[in-house]
Specification:
Number of domains: 2
Largest sheet: 8 strands, mixed
Strand content: 15-25%
Distance between the termini: 83 Å
Number of strands: 8
Strand order of the largest sheet: 3-4-5-2-6-7-1-8
Shape: globular
Order of helices and strands: HHHEHEHEEEHEHEHEHHH
CATH superfamily of the largest domain: P-loop containing nucleotide triphosphate hydrolases
Helix content: 25-40%
CATH architecture of the largest domain: 3-Layer(aba) Sandwich
Number of helices: 11
CATH class of the largest domain: Alpha Beta
CATH topology of the largest domain: Rossmann fold
Amino acid sequence: MLSQNLRAAMNWERYKADPIMWIDAFGLLRDKQGKPCELDANQRPIFDPQNKRIIINCHRQWGKSTICSLLCFHRALFYPKSLCLLVAPSLRQSSENFRKIADGLDILTPPPELEEDTKLSLKFVNGSRIISLPGSQKTIRGFTAPDLIVIDEAGQAEDDLYGALFPMLSSNPAGRLILASTPWGRRGFFFELWERGLGWLKIKVVAADNPRISPAVLEEARVGPNGPLWFAQEYCGEFVTDEFSLFDDARINKALSDDFEEIDAEVY
């Protein structure tokens, strides 16, 4: 059980039911200057537990890692014995995501009591765990019935990782799965689910719609040396074809299609 001091400091049942109110009340979301700020309108549906499958296709620096870290924090704090897995393709990304959770712990007063605190995992006294993992299917096998799985930078993650994580939810139908990434080519599970996945809430955020990004910086990126394909991918949420590909996807799909006009051989 969490301490009575912590529960007394919060409108517990209200904050449990309304994570956005909890975030706002304690100023858990901060800007670059460390000042409390509010969630964007398109970030709010991520905190609705009715949305069990979410794909976030967003530009760099939108705040997806911070949002997903707060989601894990809320679940672990208010729901005893929860298991939250925060997965990223690299150890560096996993460490950075975990640091964002640690920042939230430092803000709450009194702080939640921890039974275990390592470089990449937390165990609360209520039995909940948050585990941040580098994205290899070899490192994540063995977990059972997670309540929340977040795959950060899912566009760069291997298909085997998704194949290892998704079956874990079979023993917990209420478990949530969130994929968050900037696009990384027209391949992999992130692209396939964005294009053809059914039953997913799909959130797309382009840099031009973000008031925190300077139009001057955006224009500098657009005309910069990395080229238009890079800009379309990093800032516009586009799944672009590799510029070195001999054929684009449209031509390949047309070549494989059965929808063509039959030729009468006698005419020729």
